[in-house]
Each structure stands twice: as C-alpha cells, then as structure tokens.
Amino acid sequence: MSSLQQYIDLYRQQQPLLTKGSHPLINAHRAAALQFLEACGLPTRKDERYKYTDVAAVLEPDFGLNLSRLSLQFDPRQTYRCRVPGLGSSVHYVVGDSVAESNVLIDDGSLFVGPMVEFAQRYPDILRAYYNKVEGDSLAVLNTLLVQDGLVIRVAEGHKVADLLQIVNLSVGSVPMLANRRQLIIMERGAEASILNCNHSATRCDNLATEVVEAFLTEGSHLQYYSVEETTANCNLLNTTNFVQQKDSHLDYASITLNSGLSRRTVNIALEGSHAQTAVSGLVLANDNRHIDNNLLVVHNAPLCSSDILYKYVLDGSSTGAFAGKVLVNAQAQKTDSQETNANLCVSPSARMFTQPMLEIYADDVKCNHGSTVGQLDDTALFYMAQRGITPEEGRLLLQQAFAWDVLQRIDLLPLRQRLMHMVEERFRRGAGACGDCVMCGA
Amino acid sequence: MLEIHDLHASVEGKEILKGINLCVKEGEVHVLMGPNGSGKSTLSNVIVGNPQYTVTAGTITFNGKDLLAMPPEDRSHEGIFMSYQQPVEIPGVSMNNFMRAAVNAKRKYQGLPPISGGDFLKLVKEKREMVGLDAGLTRRSVNEGFSGGEKKRNEIFQMAMLEPQLAILDETDSGLDVDALRIVAEGFNRLRTPHTAAICITHYQRMLDYIRPDIVHVMLDGRIVRTSGPDLAYRIESEGFDWLKEENSQI
Amino acid sequence: MTPSDNTFVRDVANRDYEYGFTTDVETEVIERGLSEDVVRLISQKKGEPAWLLDFRLKAFRHWQTMEQPSWAHVELPPIDYQAISYYADPRGRKRKSGPQEIDPELEKTFDKLGIPLNERLALSGVAVDAVMDSVSVKTTFKEKLAERGIIFCSISEAVATHPELVRQYLGCVVNYRDNFFAALNSAVFSDGSFVYIPKGVRCPMELSTYFRINAINTGQFERTLIVCDDGGYVSYLEGCTAPMRDENQLHAAIVEIVVCKDAEVKYSTVQNWYPGDKEGRGGVYNLVTKRGLLKGEGSRLSWTQVETGSAITWKYPSCILQGDNSVAEFYSVAVTNNHQQADTGTKMVHLGHNTRSTIVSKGISAGHSQNSYRGLVRMGSNAHGSRNYSSCDSLLLSDTCGAHTFPYIDVNNDTSVVEHEATTSKISEEQLMYCNQRGIPPEEAVALIVNGYAKDVLSKLPMEFAVEAQKLLSVSLEGSVG
Predict the structure, then answer these.
(1) What is the 3-state secondary structure (H, E, C) of chain A?
(2) Which positions in chain A touch B41 (Cβ < 8 Å)?
(3) How confident is the model at residue A253 (pLDDT cuts 50, 70, 90)?
C-alpha cells in the first residue's frame, strides 16, 4: 500500500468519527482535499521542491491518529516549563494535535487565542474567509484532509499585543502517532503581535507531525513569528507555513532547529501589497544522521517590497542539510529589493549540504542578489585563539556559536534573543537534547 | 628563559630559517631587526607554533621545557604571548567572551577554578585603563571594525590580561601615529617586571626610544648575522642594512 | 519613451540576421523520419565499422525509452522527430571526385561567413574544420599539424584512420544514456571534429570547427571528440551560423573532451545560430551536451562561451575534475533578445583532491526573452581541499524579459569551500545618461556598457574571437533600449 493510500483509506473508513471531532467549516474542505490527493499523489524527489526529502518514506510507517479526540490525561503545565525569562508571555499548549484543555482561552474582542473549533462557532464568517485560503502542495492538502482542530490567533484592528504569545507543541503517545496540527493567524489592519512557536517531545515513540500555518498580514500589520524546534531524533516534522502580506505589513520570521528527527519546512511568503517587508531567517544545528530541509519561496507580486533572507547551517556527524530559497519577482513587482544569504559549515567529514539559492525575475527595475557558501571554520582565527591559550575545542565552539548567533541577532525581542543564544550555546556545549532547564530533557 | 638552538624552519617546502641560535634571559628586552623576508616573522610564528611553518631541525626550550612538543595553546599557557602584526578579525565573537575563554583556559592549565563574572569584569576594567583601550571596544567582536591603532592597542590589552612571561611584539609599532605608539609602548613598559622578557620585531628606531632594549639582533636570509648593544639599532636607522649585507657576503 | 527612441527601435527591428542567407548546392538528403533503418543507413553511408553501428543502435534503442526533458526554464515545443531528416550531404553527388576537393559554392559560402577554407587566404594560426549540415567539407592545415603528430580531422575520417583512438574515447565522457539529446546524438550523429594532441605537444595553432546548417528540415547532430594526452596543450574554437528559416531547426550536438595528466585544453564557443525573427518565428533549437573529463593529475580545462544565437539554448558545458589538483573554468556570456530562451550554465563535479573550479556567468536579457543560469557544483566525499568560486550576474534591459539563477551546490566533505554569489540588476540609467550626455547614442551606449559588463569573459577568448564576439553582442542587443 502506498504511503498516501493508507491515509486516504483511513479517511474513507473513519470519516464520521473524524468530522465529528471537528467543525463543519473545517469539514467543508475535505472533499476537495481528497480529490486533489487522489489526482496528484504525494510529491516525489523528482519534484524540484522535494529533491532532497523523500516525503513518502516519512509517511510510510503505520501511525496511530487520535481521531476520537481522547483526552490524553496529560497536563503539560504540571510537567513542562519552557519559559523565556524577562518576558511576559501567555503560553498555549498543543498536545499531540489537540489544543490542551488546560489552556486559558482568550477572547476579549481585541485578541482571540484558542481552539479553531471554538473560533468557528463564535466567528464562522471570519473562519470561512481565511481558513485554507492559500493553495498548498499535497503535504498541506493531506493536513487539510485529516486535521480536526487547530489554534487560531486573531489580533483585531489596531491592537498591539503586549505579551509574547507562546505556543508549545508537544509530541506525545505510547505508540507511534501522527499529529495533524494547524494554526491560523489573522493580523487585522495595523495589528501587532509576537509569537513564539516551540516544538518539544514528551514521548520516546517514533512520531510524525504535519503542520500547516496560515498567516494573513493585513495592511500595516506587524508580525514576529519565531519557531523553535527542539524535539528528539524520533520526532519527524513536515511543516508548511504560508504568509500572505498586504500593503505596508512587516513580517519577521525565523525557524531555529536545535534538535529533531527529519525536519522539512516549506515556507511560502506572498508579498501582495506595496511596501511590504519581510525578513526570513533560519538556523539549523544538526548532528548524527539528522536530515533538515528548509524550502523557501518568496513571491514578490507588488512593487516596492523588500525581502531579506538569511539561513545558516552547522552540520556535524553524518547529518544532511538542504536549503532552497527562491525569490520570484513578477512583472508588476518593480523596485523590488531582495537579498538572500545562505552560509553553511560542514564540521565533520561525512556531513552533507545541498543548497540552492534561486532568483527568478520578470521585472527589470530590481535589485536582487544572493550569496551562498559552504565551508569550514577559519584556521587563522583558530590559531589566533590558540595563541591566546584557547584550546582548539573551545575555539571551534566560540566560532560556531558566533556563526549561529548572527541569525539570532535579527530577533528584535531582546529577552527572547538572549534566551535563544543561551539555548544555542548549551546545544553546542552539551550536545543535542540538553536545553538545560526543563523537566522533559531530564537535565 | 628561552633558548633556541640551530633552528631550521620552512614554509610550503621553502627553507626560511637556516640555523637560528638565540638566548633570552629574564628581564631582557631583545630587538630583532632585518629587511623584509629575512625571517623575523617566521621566527616568531615558529616560537608560538603556527602550523603553517614546519620545523626541520633544531630545538626551542622555554624554562627548560621542550616548546616544539607543545600545541600553541599550551605555549600560551606557559607564558608566551605574540602581539600580531595584523591582528585577526573574528566576526561574531565578542572581545569579552574571547578574553574570558582565554583567561579561563589558562587558569584551568594552572589548576585554578574559572574566574567569576564579577572578577573578570573588574580585571578587564583595570587592564583596559592601563593600556587606554576604549570601553566600547571590549563589547565588540574581536578586532572587527577596529582601526589599525585600536587593533594594536587591543593586542597590548590582551597581553595585560594574560600576563605573559615572554612577549613577542611583531611590528606592533607599524601603522601607529606617535601618540598611539607612546601609549602602546607605555602600556608595554608597565607590564615589564624583572621576571619578564620581550622580543620586539621592528623596522623603526622610534619604538626603541620608548622601550629601551638590552640586545639588538640583525637577521639576514634566515640567520642572525649580528648581535650587539642598542647602538646597533641607531646605526641601522641611519645606514640601513646594506653594510651588513656586504660584510656578510664577504664571510 | 521619447519619439526618437521609437524610431530607433523601429530602425533596428528591421535589421536582418547577417548570416541568414542560404547556399544553393545540390544536397543529398535522406528521407525524413527516424527508425533503426535510418540509423543503419547513416552508418552505411559513412562506411562505418560494425562496432560503431552497434554503438548507434544501442543508443537508439535507449533513446526510444526516454522522454524529452522538461526541467529547463524554456518552453520547448514538442518536437516531431519523424519530421526531420537526419542526414544531409551538401557535397551531393560530386563526392566521388575526392574527399578534399571542395565545391566552389561551398567555399564561397564559408568565405562569406568569414571562414576562408583556402589555406593561403586563411587566418594565420587557425586551422579550420568546416562542417555543413551533416558532413565535414574541408579541414585545413591537416598535414602541417600531422608533422607534430597532431590529428585534426573530421570524426568520420578518424573512424577510418584511427579507429583505435575513436573507439577508446567515444562515449567515455558523455555516455549515450546520459540524457535524451545525448542518446539521440549518439544514434544519429553525422560529423564533427576529432582532435588528438600527443604527449608533450603544444598545438602551434588555434584549432577550430565552423558549423553551418544549410539544408531545410534537417537536424544537425555533430559530435566532437578532443583528446589531449599527457602534458599537451590545445586551444579550440567553435563557431556556428544558420540560414533564416521560418521553421525551427534542431541542433543536438555532443562535445567530449579528455584531458590527461598536466595537459590543458581551452574550448571557446561563439554561438550565433539563427535566433528566429522579432516575433519568435523560426530559429535553431540548440540542445547540446558538452563535457570534459579532467582525467589526469594537474589537468586543466576551460570553457568559454558567448551565446547570442538560437531560439532555444539548452547547454551546460561541464567538467568532471577527476585528477588531483585539476583546474576547471567556465566563463559565459549569454545574451537573449526578442523571444529567445536560454537555459545555460555548467556542472563542476569535483572528485579529486585539491581540485579548483571557477564559474563566471553573465546573463543579459532584453526584449521578451528568458535567460537562465543553471549550474551544479558538487564536492565529492573524496574531493578534499577543493574549492569553487561562482559568480553569476544578470543584467536586465527590458521590463518584459526574465533573468533567472538556479545554482545547485552539493558538498559532501568538510574540507572543501564553495562560494557562490549572484546579482540581478537593471542596466544603470545613470551610466546610460552619462554616455548620452557625452554624445554617445543609446544603442552604442548599451553596447558599450554591456561589453564592459561582459569583459571578464570576453577577455578569456582568443583574440580573433574576442573582436567578433564584441561585435556580436552589440548586434544582438540592438533594438533592446527604450
């Protein structure tokens, strides 16, 4: 049976159960999703954007799904702490793919943070207008077919959210599980918010998460969205993140992969209104036989927009890194300013890096450039350090850390930046899986 | 303190040092002069253990220990410091982190516990003031965006932090204006004790006005061809190296 | 746009492709269509040995299992491979009068193209193999080169005179299974040049092949094989033109180069196939596989190309850096105007230790054209201490064209360094204005700026070619300002 077929069959058999645990507005998209999947199948390595990751193999195992929405008898608040010191934050947990019952739902007219099913009941028109509006590939469509609930963050016009909104996604289960997570973020005109999305694991079983994040940045809105992946080798992730930006909107996006199994992130950013700005960053630290693939597409559809992309990888062990970043400038997007940098360090003989920075340009009045390097640490700097008495190991650590921090410098929120810098340093000093002060890691 | 015996060294297969003998005792300041390409910088790089240089023959001992058997960081821990002609820029690594790593590595070598954050900052402040280094510079990345003078001053600052027994100043005076030179030299003089020594590589007399050497050596084509008192430096300043070259070719 | 600009554009739009004439010679053309019988017929016409027919048939059978590739950023219409004739011999029936006696009409054609085949009139220091349609009509200075042991002749002749060399090297760099067009070429290749430089010999003159498509509805499938033995050196030039025809013509060539220990090969191309008319009618489909194997230690290979012609270009001159310390270079200027589409670049596959490669690509797009750089740099797991530097720049001259960059970088060890940078920008209005203010008209100013932009690459060409290439850049871009 093909990887995909098992999910199609599951859907056919379990449709009543699946839809019962969801909402009619979410269920309304499943028929088209099924049709699409049956016609198109899963992407293969012959598809340009999946050249380095075999999606079918990731979906191959016989995972269990929590279709009947069983309560997992698991209160993350009792066992899990993932705090950013010095920053007020409201934390929202997603356990497996269920929005945790212990969460405090926020709905005060200016801000909504809560389950998608709940949002659909309270604001059906808004959900209808935004849910599943961005065309995705088969992976995103598979999520649409199977997802039951998700998290909605809506910031009303002109509202500036003071606290950091933190979402903690936990992989759980005593058997191999598939979690289908969804986030819908609606930034109304002039709204501002910062979101920290963390992925952690609370299970030793193999598991897979499909995630679809849809975020809409209406005119003049500002969104900072940072995603930190710090799970374990048995947690695989297939993430699709779509941002649609209107006029004068600002997006800061960063994904930081500190520890994980196979991780694939597809990030699509559409700049639909003039003067929209986007800064996209990525940091990957990989060791052992990890496989980390970031595939980015930034489409400029309006004039006078800017995009600034920086991705860095440090590859150790026999890990594989893949990066593809395409900037597509359509004919109407005159005066586009775009730059892209991808720098990679291979620090072990069997680490592999595949990188493709791409430009596709159909407008003439543009300033676009990209640069990409794959290399090693600077021997001259290492020797200079040795002359000052710093051992080669410590010297390498300092240089790798400096290389990685470069990405974190782009994070505006100082406490968060410092927290992430600390996590990166810990990751380098103590290896993967030791973030220092949480119960889960046992550290 | 430092004894070099019949040292031969090459870089990329080409022999640069062709039998160096040199003995530096506690409290002494030696000056190494010589035209470009005579092997001055090679000698200092070999002493600190730059892997680009291959020692093909000879010995170097430091306080009786075989220096050539040690990795560069241990030579540093033993008390050898080289001030670079062109200090290396290390983007992203802050001076504070860099120095703290260096100080703690030395303390570990000496069997001491790591320095506390407060003590470290106090030490930095004290040494910084001693060499006149701007406070902002220690928060920036190592040498990145520093002016030529700031880089040199930063080298002397690091020297003050690490308190070496033997300092090698590789053209520390080049690229400095008179005021900067005075500050650097004064900083250096303040660090001198009866138990420390220095080897100073220079083209210019003016550095020597400040640091008053005991012994002057002239290098030509990979050998030390003349060793004498400070007067030798004055003669070279006025007459250049040609007379030595001639003398040497007659031998 | 000012009215004067308008006139200027109109003036230039009326300009013709300089090499668009046809030659009226009696040409022997075989029936259109492709089958095993046609492959056998080509082989029989050329009087080939059984091993070569066998090679062709294997390739043909493999080709039948393949599909035309679609990954390039070009819109290649489906080609009816049965509507093409696979063999055209302009020497017609006069052929029997001796292989080196040449029809005066053909000689005139090449004269007109600036390629005199008469050795007394020829450019000093350049030996030419002139190929029209499917056959080599004349190779100059053959005897003079033979004195030094250099073999320079058509590949058909080499099959007869040096079968052991051809058999040893044919297909050893580009296997017939390599890609769709390589398989097609391996099945039906007609003629092309063969060069062998013996051990320690520096070829005293530039060798060159001039390709000309003349006959209607024929495809050209030439095959060039260059072997440079230990310590040898050769500089090789390739030029090409075709008549203006409303139909598209197919050109699917293979160039294979083997560079042995400490040997050096420079391969320069000025490609000026008919690009089609202003509306995009006609023009050559240039679908070419070029690859060099840097087999020996310390070997060097450099590709330099100036691509101005063809309706569609699909071409990636590549290097396999197998020998330790081998050095490869790729320098390219690709100009597209009107409705031209180019997808070109290189592959640098590093296998040996301390290998070095450099890529410099300059794309210039105008009109409604699409111009893409596509390149692969791969550092194999044993390519310790290897380096690559790539720089890909695109210049945009109109708001209806496209400029694209698709680099692929694969690194499989921790001692290699790969650096890639790319920029895309519009031609500078300040520069144009500055030229205008100094009295230089727009068309000249564009030519001036573009030539300056492409200078790094043009300077790599042999002298005779560099001048021609500069002229060509100016002509190709006429009508692109406004």
Answers:
(1) CCHHHHHHHHHHHHHHHHHHCCCHHHHCCHHHHHHHHHHHCCCCCCCHHHCCCCHHHHHCCCCECCCCCCCCCCCHHHHCCCCCCCCCEEEEEEECCEECCCCCCEECCCEEEEEHHHHHHHCHHHHHHHCCCCCCCHHHHHHHHHCCCCEEEEECCCCECCCEEEEEEEECCCCCEEEEEEEEEEECCCCEEEEEEEEEECCCCCEEEEEEEEEEECCCCEEEEEEEEECCCCEEEEEEEEEEECCCCEEEEEEEEEECCEEEEEEEEEECCCCCEEEEEEEEEECCCCEEEEEEEEEECCCCCEEEEEEEEEECCCCEEEEEEEEEECCCCCCCEEEEEEEEEECCCCCEEEEEEEEEECCCCCEEEEEEEEECCCHHHHHHHHHCCCCHHHHHHHHHHHHHHHHHCCCCCHHHHHHHHHHHHHHHHHCCCCCCCCCCCCC
(2) none
(3) very high
Paired residues of C28 in beta bridges: C89
User: What local confidence, expressed as pLDDT, does residue C275 receive?
Assistant: 83
**Residue C482 belongs to a domain:** no
- Chain A adjacent subunits, 3+ CB pairs under 8 A: B, C
Q: What is the pLDDT of residue C125?
A: 62
Whole-prediction pTM: 0.84
Structural domains in chain C (count): 1
Lowest average pLDDT, out of A177-191, A307-321, C86-100, C199-213, goes to: C86-100
Please tell me if residue B49 touches chain A, with a CB cutoff of 8 Å.
yes
Cα A98 to Cα A74: distance, rounded to the nearest angstrom: 11
Distance from CA of B87 to the nearest CA of A (A): 8
Q: What value does the mean pLDDT take over residues A8-34?
A: 94
Tell me the residue range of the domain where C220 lies: 3-477
- Residue C207: pLDDT band by 50, 70, 90 thresholds? confident
For residue A386, what is the nearest residue in chain B, using CA coordinates? B73
State the Cα–Cα distance between residues C272 and C311, nearest whole angstrom: 10
For the stretch B4-53, pLDDT in tens is 999 999 988 899 999 999 999 999 999 998 888 889 989 999 999 888 89
Residues of A in contact with C405 (CB under 8 A): 357-360, 370
Q: Which residues of A touch B82 (CB under 8 A)?
A: 387
Q: Where are the domains of chain A?
A: 3-430
Half-sphere exposure of B196 (CA within 13 A, CB side): 20
Distance CA C173, CA C178 (A): 9
Mean pLDDT of B169-197: 80
Q: How confident is the model at residue A1 (pLDDT cuts 50, 70, 90)?
A: low
C399–A375 C-beta distance less than 8 A: no
pLDDT tens-digit readout, A422-438: 889 888 887 765 544 44
Confidence of residue C2 (pLDDT cuts 50, 70, 90): very low
Q: How far apart are CA A315 and CA A257, in angstroms?
A: 12
Measured CA to CA, the distance from residue B76 to residue A388 in angstroms comes to 6
Domain boundaries, chain B: 2-250
Q: Do strands C283-294 and C254-259 pair parallel, antiparallel, or not at all (unpaired)? A: parallel
Please give the share of chain A, as a percent, with pLDDT higher than 90.
74
Q: What is the mean pLDDT of chain C?
A: 83
What's the CATH fold of domain B2-250?
Rossmann fold (3.40.50)
Computed on alpha carbons and rounded to an integer, the radius of gyration of chain B in Å comes to: 18
Q: DSSP class of residue B67?
A: G
Pairing between β-strand A89-95 and β-strand A98-99 as defined by DSSP bridges: antiparallel
- Compute the distance between CA of residue A326 and CA of residue C372 in angstroms, rounded to an integer: 14
Neighbours of chain B (3+ CB pairs under 8 A): A
Q: What one-character DSSP code corresponds to residue B121?
A: H
Q: Do B98 and A387 touch (CB under 8 A)?
A: no
